Amino acid sequence: MLVVDLVISAHVLELDQLLSRLASARNRLTLPLAQAAERVTAESSWVPLGYRSSDDFAREHFQRSGGWLRSLAALQRSMQRVPALRHAVAGSDGDAPLGRAAALEIHRHVDTHNVAPWLERARKFPIRMLRESLRKSHPESHEAHADAQRSVATSDKQSAESIESTCLRVSAPPEVHVAHHDVLELHRAVSGAEVSARDFFESLVGESRSSGRCRSMESREDTSQRRIPGADDAVNASLRRRQALERLSRSAVLCSRSTSAKLARRTLRRAEHWIKESPVSNRPARPERLGSEKLARRRVHELREILSLENEIEARIAELLLELSERRVWRTIGFRGVAEYAEERLGCSRNATYRRVRLARRLKQLAEVRRAYEAGHLGLESALWVASAMRDRIPNREIQFRWIEHASTTTLKRLRDEERILERKSWLDRADTALETTLRHARPRGAGRAPNPSDRCHAPEPKSAGIPDDITWQGSLRRVPGQTQALLAALGAGVLERVVMRGALVERPMRWILPADLAHDVVDCIESARRALADGASRAHTVAQEARLAPSERLAREFVGQCKPIPAWVGYLALLEEYAGVWDDPTSMSRRPHDAILARAGWRCTAPGCSARRNLQVHHLQHRARGGGDEPTNLDVVCAYHHLRGEHGVLAHCRGQAPLDVIWRLGTRELGVWYRNERRLASEPSALT
User: Fold this and answer.
1) 3-state class of 150 per DSSP?
2) DSSP string across 334-400
3) Based on the number of CB atoms within 10 Å of its own CB, is 622 exposed (0-12), middle (13-18) or buried (19 or more)?
4) According to the model, what pLDDT value does residue 73 have?
5) What predicted TM-score, i.e. pTM, was given to this entire model?
6) What does each C-alpha distance from 198 to 2, 155, 163 come to in angstroms?
7) Which end of the chain is less packed: N or C, by CB atoms within 10 Å?
8) pLDDT, tens digit, for every residue of 599-642?
9) In Å, what is the CA distance from 74 to each residue of 26, 81, 396?
10) Integer CA distances (angstroms), 553 to 206, 259, 336, 492, 595, in order
11) CA quadruple 148, 154, 158, 161: dihedral sign
12) Radius of gyration for the alpha carbons in the chain, expressed in angstroms and rounded
């Protein structure tokens, strides 16, 4: 039986009422946001700005995924087709505004005949159960939508929010963390796209099954049509929780003096005023007699204005959720945690809630970063990057201003590259620390355990690195055939040395959000790899065979020799070695004249913000017709779009010497922005004026 008649403090009820009103205001922004997104999409407003695709445009301009932009545009078209859906989203049908997450789930399936029952279900069911209901009632449409999402999957965090998922966790030493990220980059280079973790693990599973090590799981039970036990009870319990909390918080008086509550009330007044003064028409926009450049600028400005207000609302929601989390009131108000509360009470997705609350917690110690984030100088991704990079630093103002300036003028494409650089250095520092600890307490083979077993869990944390300079960033992009295999061998040798000396492994968890079926497949492949390694470890080998063993095989033999079970991370390392052995074999790759130039660029377009990894072409910075030669400093890598429609068209322009002194203009002359090494310049460089 659900207990709802608990004594809840007036302050908690006030925060709940503020959160409910902020979520309602955010839902009412869906109408203007969807209309602005549809106009941007219909007019391809990213083309005059020099972007190849809506994915790159949305990432760099709004720090959202291209799928977010396309989903809002599709929702706008559905609302024009089904007026009842529009009234539900606006809250003008006599009920509370329909949550955006629910509207994005059902809009593909509703029409004028079935809209009423779907709206009732969307308002009653939590998001996860609504998705399950849609999957059962429209299996073909659901699978087609999932395949479409996977075909355009990116590394953006928002790309997998509509897919039912689970968390896969494997604890591993720092070297395996580095190996995972490097093989993931190899997979992106092989795939020719910024693929997601889901696509990467599907490839790992495919390689493992094709080798015969892991058998296909055709006999696994099909859960798509299986009824979830207690599903109706869960829906009713969720509905009772929401109704009880709504009944209690309705009488709360907004008088809290906490900083987060004051800011939330201010944001709420601003949002209500903006919504009141900015009515949205459902009629198609009239054609405007403006040039494509001016029209694109206006469309982007309209979308950014609405999005800035939504970002402010979401930041206030995160601050209030953090305050409730710190008060530990979730069980008191009938919820298991912040994610369940945000999903059922506010209609927010769990992944987005976790990220916003995590950022709010970090920004409490970074006052200047918080001000820049609230003022709109930093987006969500940039603020998360700064907060993560400054995690182990003393947050003085000078350092904060330096990181803010860097993040606000650098493309998200480069920030993600730098995030990988900092993470890799952090993991390698941990490995060095673990080796030093092992050498201090080393004992000969067979002498028993190390004197200080706690070192395995409590090795000192490394100090974070500074902002990577241009040379470090450029060097991290380089990828030549056989590079990943060599790195895996070196990393495996490093962790093997500590295992032999029974030293500190400093295992840390690796976490991935994956579809449930795929997570089970990955676990099956890891277990199959462990069994195969255990079978091979018991066999005798000649000296020549011993020399050819992979690092995972050597580690397995060492663990078996120490009478210890083979850890899961050794099986995962074997999967990574298997993938690299197939796709990073230099003997099986053909040689081309400009491979060195492509390898220097990381097999990726060098245009600012462009993530293209396919249809790459080598461009002469100084045209051959003007005396340019084939020396490496005059050659750069661009995709076909930025080569033909950019440099040889009007949408982009580049000059200079590769790889570090190339200056780009992205966009037409009227709208163009100048960049050097993925960093925005204040104005056109005088040398090119």
Assistant:
1) helix
2) T-SSHHHHIIIII---HHHHHHHHHHHHHHTT-HHHHHHHHTTSS-HHHHHHHHHHTTTS---HHHH
3) middle
4) 94
5) 0.86
6) 37, 10, 11
7) N
8) 999 999 999 999 999 999 999 999 988 888 999 999 999 999 99
9) 19, 11, 45
10) 21, 57, 43, 10, 33
11) positive
12) 27
- Token pair for residue 527? 């277990």
Q: List, for residues 343-373, the tens digit of each pLDDT value.
A: 888 888 888 888 999 999 999 889 999 999 9
Question: Which helix H or strand E contains 510, and what residues bound it?
Answer: strand 508-515
Residue with tokens 């992205």: 666
**Of 446, 396, 391, 453, nearest in space to 422 by CA:** 391
Rounded Cα gap, residues 500 and 506, in angstroms? 15
Name the packing angle between helices 66-81 and 30-42 (round to 10°). 110
Do 378 and 407 form a contact (C-beta atoms < 8 A)? yes
Asked whether the beta carbons of 36 and 129 are under 8 A apart, the reply is: no
Kind of pairing between the strands at 661-666 and 673-676:
antiparallel
The DSSP line for 193-238 is S---HHHHHHHHHHHHHHTTSS---TTS---SSPPPTTHHHHHHHH
Residue type, 680: R
Flag whether pLDDT at 6 surpasses 50. no
pLDDT for position 186: 94
In angstroms, the CA 136 to CA 227 distance is: 10
> Quick one: pLDDT at residue 164?
59
Phi first, then psi: what are they for 674, rounded to 5°? -95, 140
In this prediction, residues 17-33 reach a mean pLDDT of 90
Contact 11, 313 (CB under 8 A): no
User: What is the 3-class SS of 631-660, one letter each residue?
Assistant: CHHHEEEEEHHHHHHHHCCCCEEEEEECCC
Q: Is the dihedral of CA 395, 320, 97, 228 positive or negative?
A: positive
**Length of the chain, please?**
689
Average pLDDT over residues 540-557: 86
pLDDT of 153 higher than 70: no
Report the greatest alpha carbon distance in the chain: 84
Distance (Å) of CA 315 to CA 14, 23, 363, 375, 527: 18, 11, 11, 11, 42
Question: Which residues share a beta bridge with 616?
Answer: 639
Coil/strand/helix, residue 524: helix
Structure confidence at residue 464 as a pLDDT band (50, 70, 90): very low
Amino acid at 527: E
- C-alpha 565/C-alpha 616 separation (Å) is 47
Q: How far apart are CA 492 and CA 192, in angstroms?
A: 27
pLDDT for 541 equals 75
Q: What is the pLDDT of residues 536-545, one digit of tens each?
A: 888 877 778 8
Model confidence at 250, in pLDDT bands (50, 70, 90)?
A: low
- Sequence-distant (≥ 6) Cβ neighbours of residue 512 within 8 angstroms: 167, 168, 197, 201, 519
Q: What are the backbone dihedrals phi and psi of residue 51, each rounded to the nearest 5 degrees, phi first?
A: -90, 145
Number of Cβ within a 10 Å radius of residue 432: 13
Average pLDDT over residues 65-75: 92
Enumerate residues 6+ apart whose C-beta is below 8 A from 407. 378, 382, 383, 385, 386, 415
Tokens matching residue 141: 């449409």
